[in-house]
């Protein structure tokens, strides 16, 4: 019987890199991630900067103002491309099967996809950690921005009696702050 292997970051990058870049740029520009990411003399997380396409030579004249402009320009460019969640990778197919089995809505599937990618992609995880601890409303806003669903729809998908929570797949405690990477 052949051995199966876990998807590597390279496998994930092949299918998810454009979307992960979009999400990371949205985190930095629209969700206050830049507060932690931009330092006076360099980016705080080199792996995230490299994933976003910054080269060492780009950083010779680094300033936080330059970096914020560069992030904003990269975000505008990738938003014009409008990358979507891929449907063909094993992860996407497995999530689709799970969604059919427990009748998840598209918003719930997208939230789950986001959460799984955070757990298996170290650069995406590092970028999410830069956003810091979030209250539920901030988490809903972040997911709404990244996934492109209205905040009330995301809020509904994360409710305590929703399918994600009832099935013990994913829940967000209303009383506590949420920290990615914890």
Structure characterization notes:
With 182 residues, the protein is mostly helical. It has helices at 9-30, 34-37, 46-51, 64-81, 90-102, 106-120, 122-131, 136-147, 151-157, 163-166. Helix 1 packs across helix 4, helix 1 (9-30) runs parallel beside helix 7 and helix 1 (9-30) packs across helix 8. It starts with 8 loop residues before the first helix and ends in a 16-residue tail after the last helix. Mean pLDDT is 86; it is low at 1-6.
Keywords:
single chain, 182 residues, mainly alpha, 0% strand
Unreliable stretches (pLDDT < 50, length at least 5) are: 1-6
**What spatial form do the alpha-carbon principal axes imply?**
globular
Rounded to the nearest angstrom, the distance between the terminal CA atoms is: 36 Å
Largest sheet: none
Strand content: under 5%
Helix content estimate: 55-70%
Radius of gyration: 17 Å
Q: Can you count the beta strands?
A: 0
Quickly give the structural class.
mainly alpha
Total number of helices = 10
Average pLDDT metric: 86
Order of helices and strands: HHHHHHHHHH
Short description:
This protein has 182 residues and is mostly helical. The protein contains ten helices and no strands.
Question: Which SSEs are present, and which pair or pack?
Answer:
Layout (H helix, E strand, L loop, with lengths): L8 H22 L3 H4 L8 H6 L12 H18 L8 H13 L3 H15 L1 H10 L4 H12 L3 H7 L5 H4 L16
Helix pairs in contact: 1-4, 1-7, 1-8, 5-6, 6-7, 8-9
